[in-house]
Design brief:
The structure holds 2 protein chains of 2 kinds. By secondary structure, chain A is an alpha/beta fold. Chain A has 10 helices and 10 strands. Chain B has helices at 2-21, 47-63, 203-216, 223-254, 256-269, 278-285, 289-313, 317-325, 330-367, 373-382, 386-414, and strands at residues 82-91, 97-107, 128-133, 138-140, 155-159, 162-163, 169-171, 175-179, 185-189. Chain B is 51% helix and 12% strand. The chains are: A alpha/beta, B alpha+beta.
C-alpha cells in the first residue's frame, strides 16, 4: 500500500505542574501519493506536533503513522522535511548542502552531481552553488532547503511554514516554485502554514484544524493548486471562489480564536 | 598623584587639540550618523587617541626616570647631585658656641666618589666633609673633628641658623637635615620627582637589558629558552586539556549519563582558580615539567569541556532533525553537524583557555621553576633587577597578546561561519 496513513493519532504530554495537555486527539487521514495538502489552524492546534509525528521526531501516545506499508518509528530519508529557516548547514557551500542526502547515503559524486546541478538550476541557484549559505538572502536559503530535500528524493515532503519568514514578494515567487516542483516531481507534500491565502493557493487538499484538543475541524478539496500550476498566482486569487473560500476559512479560524479567548476569560 | 594629574591633563588637552586640529574630512556612513551617543556601532576607536595614549605612557615613564629618550626640558626635577653645604652651630658644656660648614658630595650610587677637601676653618668647631648617595641619606658626625667633642658636651643646636633638636629637622636648599634622637645629624639630599632606577628604570635601560639578556642569557639559559619553555608548557598542557576536554564535553552534550556523572565535577572544578591548585600539584608532582603540565592540563580541561558541551547544546534542533530526515546516521550527524556546529564555541573556549594557561604558567613559574618567563622575573626581583622585571612583564604581555591574535586569526580562517547560523 503506497501513500501515507495517519491512523487515530493522539498526543498527550504531562507538564511540570502536574497537568497534562492534549495536543492531538484522534487525528486520522490518508494521503494518496502525489497529493499536496496544506494544514491551517489557530496557534496551539497541534499542526506542528502532527508534522513532527509524521516526520518521526515524536512518538504519538496513541495511534500510528503507516507509510509504504510500514509503521513509522523514527526519521527516515523517505520523509524529507523543509523547516521555516535556520536548518541549513552554514559550514557547507550551497552545493554541499544540496548533496548532503546522497553523500550521507554513500553515493559517489558522479552519481549525484547531475541531479544536484539540475535541481540547483530548477531553483535558480546555479550561479551560487559554490557560495556559503550564510551569504545568501532568506529566499535563496529556502530554495536551497527545498533543493536539498528534493535531492534526497523522498516520497513525502513535510514543510513546516517554509515561507513564513520571507517577505511578501519573495513568498509569492516561492509559492509558484513549490507548485512547479510539486507538479514536476509528483511528490506527496504536507505543508503547514499560517497564511490562509497560501493554504488555499497551494493546497489541493486543505485541512483546517481546531485547538484544545488538536483535531481535524474541516477538510476541503480545492482546484486552485492545479490552476496555479499553469497560471499566475495573482490571477488565481481573483477567482470568485477563492475570495469566498478565504472569507469562509478566515471566519472559521477567527471564531476558534474567539472561543479560546472566551475560555481563558472564563477560567479567570 | 602628580603623575596621575599630569596623565589626566594630557588626556584632556590632547582630546581638545585633536578635536580642534584634526577635524574629520571623511563622510563615511558612520560619520554621518547624528545619533552616536548610545549607538555602540558608531563608536570606533580613535586611532590618534591610541597613539597619543601609548606615547603618553612612554613620555611619563621617560620624564620621571630622567630618560635620555625624552628631551631634558620635559624631565621631572631630578635628584640633587654635586656638593651640598650647610652650616651648623654647636654648643659645648662651657657655654661657648661656634659655627662650622658641612660639605656633602652627593653622588650617583654605583659610581666612585671622593670626599671633598675642605679647610678646617676658624674656632673650635671645624668644617666637615662627607659623601651621600642620591636618593639615600647619611649620618654625618660633625663632632668627630671638632676640638670639643661629645665628652665635652658638644651638641648641635642649629642648622643654617635655624634651631634644631633631637628628632627634629631643617629644610635646606640641598635637602633635609635631620637630627637623630641621639643628636647626630642626618643629611638626606633632595630627591626631586624622578624615580630611582631601583624602583623604575628608564625605558632605554630596560631596552639595553633586553639586548644584553637576549645575547648573553639569564641564569644559564638564553632568553629564548626561558620564553620557549613557558610557551612549550602552555602548548603541551593546552593540547592535552583539549584532547581530553573536547571529547568529554561532547559526551556531556550527547549522553544524559555522562552529563549527570561529570556535571558535579566540572561545575565544581570550573570556578576553582588554577592558581589554587599549584600547591597541590607541587606536592604531587614536584616542581618539574610534569607538575606544570598537569597544572595547565587542569586549567584548560574544564574550559574546553564546557566549551564543547555548550557547542553541542547550541546546535539548532532543526539542523539535527534535517540531517536525520536526509538519512544521516548518528556518526554522520556527529561528524557533519555537531562537530562543525560546535567549532565556533570550541574556538572561543580555546582562546579563553590559552589566556588562562599563559597566566597560570607564569604564576606557576613564579612559585618554582628552573626556566621560564615567570622564574626570570621572580629571580630578578630578588636581586632588585627592576629592569629585568619590567622587561619580563613586557615580554609576557606581548606573548599573551600574540597568542590571542593567533587564535583570532585561526578562528577567522577555520570557522568563517561563526555567528552566521
Amino acid at each position: 500500500m503506497s501513500g501515507l496513513a495517519i491512523d487515530k493519532i493522539s498526543m498527550r504530554f504531562d507538564l511540570a505542574n502536574g497537568t497534562s495537555v492534549q495536543a492531538l486527539k484522534d487525528v486520522s487521514l490518508f494521503l494518496e501519493e502525489g497529493e499536496l495538502m496544506s494544514v491551517l489552524g489557530p496557534s496551539g492546534c497541534g499542526k506542528t506536533t502532527l508534522l513532527n509525528i509524521v516526520a518521526g521526531f515524536l512518538a504519538p501516545t496513541e495511534g500510528k503513522i503507516v507509510m509504504n506499508g510500514h509503521t513509522v518509528t523514527g526519521p527516515d530519508a523517505e520523509r524529507g522535511m523543509v523547516f521555516q529557516q535556520g536548518a541549513l548547514f552554514e559550514w557547507m557551500s550551497v552545493r554541499e548542502n544540496v548533496s548532503f542526502g546522497p553523500r550521507m547515503a554513500g553515493q559517489r559524486e558522479k552519481k549525484w552531481a547531475e541531479n544536484v546541478d539540475h535541481l540547483l538550476d530548477v531553483v535558480g541557484l546555479h550561479d551560487f552553488k559554490e557560495k556559503a549559505v550564510y551569504e545568501l538572502s532568506g529566499g535563496m536559503q529556502q530554495r536551497v532547503a527545498l533543493a536539498r530535500c528534493l535531492a534526497n528524493d523522498p516520497d513525502v515532503i513535510l514543510m513546516d511554514e517554509p515561507l513564513g519568514a520571507l517577505d511578501a514578494l519573495t513568498r509569492e515567487k516561492m509559492q509558484s516554485l513549490v507548485l512547479k516542483l510539486w507538479k514536476e516531481t509528483g511528490k506527496t507534500i504536507i505543508l503547514i502554514t499560517h497564511s490562509v491565502e497560501e493554504a488555499l493557493l497551494l493546497g489541493e487538499r486543505l485541512l483546517v484544524m481546531a485547538p484544545r484538543p488538536g483535531r481535524i475541524h474541516r477538510e476541503y478539496r480545492l482546484p486552485f493548486a492545479d490552476l496555479g500550476v499553469g497560471e499566475d498566482l495573482r490571477e488565481v486569487k481573483k477567482h470568485p471562489e477563492f475570495g469566498q473560500r478565504r472569507d469562509e476559512i478566515l471566519g472559521m479560524i477567527w471564531d476558534m480564536e474567539e472561543e479560546i479567548m472566551g475560555r481563558t476569560e472564563d477560567a479567570q | 598623584m602628580i603623575v596621575f594629574l599630569i596623565y589626566i591633563a594630557i588626556f584632556v588637552v590632547s582630546f581638545f587639540v585633536v578635536k580642534f586640529v584634526a577635524r574629520k574630512a571623511v563622510t563615511d556612513y558612520t560619520s554621518l550618523k547624528t545619533v552616536t551617543f548610545g549607538d555602540e556601532s558608531a563608536v570606533t576607536p580613535n586611532r590618534i587617541a591610541s597613539v597619543v595614549s601609548v606615547l603618553t605612557i612612554f613620555l611619563l615613564w621617560g620624564a620621571f626616570t630622567g630618560s635620555k629618550l625624552v628631551p631634558p626640558f620635559l624631565h621631572a626635577p631630578g635628584p640633587f647631585f654635586g656638593d651640598a653645604s650647610f652650616t651648623y652651630t654647636a654648643e659645648a658644656d662651657d657655654g661657648t658656641q661656634d659655627d662650622a660648614t658641612v660639605t656633602v658630595r652627593v653622588f650617583e650610587v654605583g659610581t666612585d666618589v671622593e670626599v671633598p677637601v675642605v679647610e678646617p676653618g676658624e674656632g673650635w668647631a671645624k668644617n666637615d666633609a662627607d659623601t651621600v648617595g642620591a636618593w639615600r641619606s647619611g649620618l654625618i658626625r660633625v663632632d668627630d673633628n671638632d676640638e670639643k667633642g661629645r665628652d665635652e658636651g658638644h651638641r648641635v643646636i642649629a642648622v643654617n641658623g635655624e634651631p634644631i633638636e633631637p628628632g627634629g629637622s631643617v629644610q635646606t636648599d640641598f635637602g633635609r637635615v635631620g637630627m637623630s634622637p641621639k643628636g647626630t645629624l642626618n643629611f638626606e639630599p633632595s630627591k626631586g620627582w624622578q624615580m630611582e632606577p631601583i624602583w623604575l628604570p628608564a625605558p632605554e635601560a630596560v631596552w639595553d637589558r633586553f639586548l644584553e639578556i637576549a645575547s648573553d642569557g639569564f641564569r644559564g639559559s638564553t632568553l629564548w629558552e626561558h620564553l620557549g619553555y613557558s610557551l612549550m608548557r602552555v602548548i603541551v598542557g593546552f593540547f592535552f586539556g583539549a584532547l581530553v576536554g573536547i571529547p568529554l564535553g561532547y559526551a556531556m552534550g550527547l549522553s544524559d549519563w555522562f552529563r549527570g556523572w561529570f556535571d558535579p565535577i566540572v561545575e565544581f572544578m570550573r570556578p576553582v582558580p588554577p592558581l589554587a591548585l599549584i600547591p597541590l600539584v607541587i606536592i604531587w608532582a614536584g616542581i618539574g615539567e610534569v607538575g606544570k603540565i598537569i597544572l595547565l592540563f587542569l586549567a584548560a580541561l574544564w574550559i574546553m569541556a564546557i566549551a564543547a558541551r555548550s557547542g553541542v547544546s547550541g546546535v539548532r534542533i532543526s539542523k539535527v532533525h534535517a540531517a536525520y530526515s536526509l538519512g544521516a546516521s548518528k556518526p554522520q550527524i556527529m561528524r557533519y553537524v555537531i562537530m562543525p556546529n560546535s567549532l565556533p564555541e570550541i574556538f572561543t573556549g580555546a582562546r579563553v583557555a590559552m589566556g588562562v594557561c599563559w597566566g597560570t604558567v607564569v604564576a606557576a613559574e613564579l612559585v618554582a621553576a628552573e626556566k621560564g618567563a615567570g622564574m626570570m622575573i621572580m629571580v630578578a626581583s630578588k636581586f632588585q633587577n627592576t629592569d629585568i622585571v619590567i622587561m619580563g612583564i613586557i615580554l609576557i604581555g606581548i606573548i599573551g597578546f600574540g597568542i590571542d591574535m593567533l587564535m583570532r586569526w585561526a578562528e577567522r580562517v577555520l570557522v568563517p561561519w561563526k555567528g552566521k547560523g
